[in-house]
Structure formats: structure tokens, C-alpha cells
Amino acid sequence: MTYRELYEEGKRVLGQNRIEEAALDARLLLEAVCQITRSDLLAHGERAVEERQIAHYREWIAKRGSHVPLQYLTGVQEFMGLAFAVDENVLIPRQDTEILVEEAMKNLHDGYRILDMCTGSGCILLSLLHYSNGCSGVGADISEEALKVAGQNAEALGQKNVRFVRSDLFANIEGMYEMIVSNPPYIRSDVIATLADEVRLHEPRTALDGGRDGLDFYRKIAAESPGHLCGGGMLFLEIGYDQGEAVRTLLEEAGFKGVTVAQDYAGLDRVAYGYWPSV
Hints:
CATH architecture of the largest domain: 3-Layer(aba) Sandwich
Number of strands: 9
Shape: elongated
């Protein structure tokens, strides 16, 4: 069987299983299995594929056809121009979250200490450290499995100024920070069942479910983060498109100043941030 024939087979199977990006996913999986590029597929489509690669590809196509996310099969997702390892214990990094990193970077200075709450794969914290000078960070998560993934990503990126702590929010957090960032669970509990199968069935619910109104974690972070922020320190939160005013109010009521809601490239509310006043 040739590259082209195997690709066409994969595309057909994914299409039959209502995978939205059937052609793209079939190609990306073939490239990953056979360690080839798109150019190789175009230029050498008639080249024969090894039997073991055929079996591997068909296995992945079957899993993708059952709506296992492509990134959990390939084990990698790009974020902020960096490659991050991912598995079923962490959320898949999304382009929307890059807005959080970009907003934080506008206010990040050399030597800052950064706390990343609900760190997951570590993509937010590790991106900030990668694109800054002399900063250090702590990533906190309640999931030991997620922290293992974050640690692997730190090692792969050669990032040594970071450590990861198992903590239920701030329970095990010590020290003070100039910046706290977080992409906490913020989807309303009653919305989880309506999400795409890739998210609903495969991504960790504990990283999605923000409680009855989606604001549970924002309430706790707004209340507890001042105990770990230096005077003038800033808190940055990713938010849902319809949560801007609610989170703004929570932050202002907690005592944060200069609270701002930033939009993503689609013009939707995506990040809320403010600073903790100096005494």
C-alpha cells in the first residue's frame, strides 16, 4: 500500500465517523506515523508504506474516528511557537490561551517570580519563562499526573528556573510573587454535556468544570491570591467569552485595582487582569 492510498483510506474512515477535519487529521496522523512531511506525501505518494506503519496508522485512525483528540495520539501540541507534550491528564493547549500569555508578557519584567495556578501541561508558565530573562516560576495543580507532564515539558525545553507543586489551589503554596497567572476550569457544569465529544469524553473534567455558574475557581483565586502577591503584583486570568463583567466584579470586590478585560482576535472577552495595590 502506498502513502497516497493509505492517506485516502484514513480520510475516508474519518469522514464516515464525522470527524470535522478528516482530510487534515488523516494527513497529520500519517506524517506522524511515517515520520514524513507534507512535501514527502505530495512528491512521493506512490512510495510503499511498511506493514508495521500501516498497522500503526490504522490503529490511530480508529481511535481518532472514536473522537480521541489528535493531540492525545501524537502526544504533542504547539503553543506559543513551542512544542508541548500532552496526554489525557492535561487539557490540550489552545490558541485562545495564547492571549493570556501575550497579555501577561506585556507586564512581565526581568527577574519576576511567577505562580501558575492550575498549570496542567505547564504551557503558560513555561512559555513566559522561555520568552523572558531571569524569571522563575512555580506551577501548581491538584493532579499529580498533570504535574508529571509539566515536568517533562520543562525538561524538554531546558527550563531549570521552575518547580511544580501539587496543591489544591493555594493550599500548599508558599512565598510571594510579582505575577500570578491561571487558566482555571470555567465551564458551567450543565454545559459540559453539550461539548464536543473530543472534549467531553477525553479531556479531564476536573480541568473543565467551573461549577454551577462557572465562577467557582475565580472566586477562590480572587480571594486567596492577594496573600501571595507583592504590592503592585498582577493577576491574569483566562475567562470564558461571557464572563468578563462577572470576573471583573469579583476582582474589584476582592480589592484589585486597574481591572481590565482583554479580548481575543475574534473580539470576545478572553482575559481579565488587575494589580494588587501596595500597602
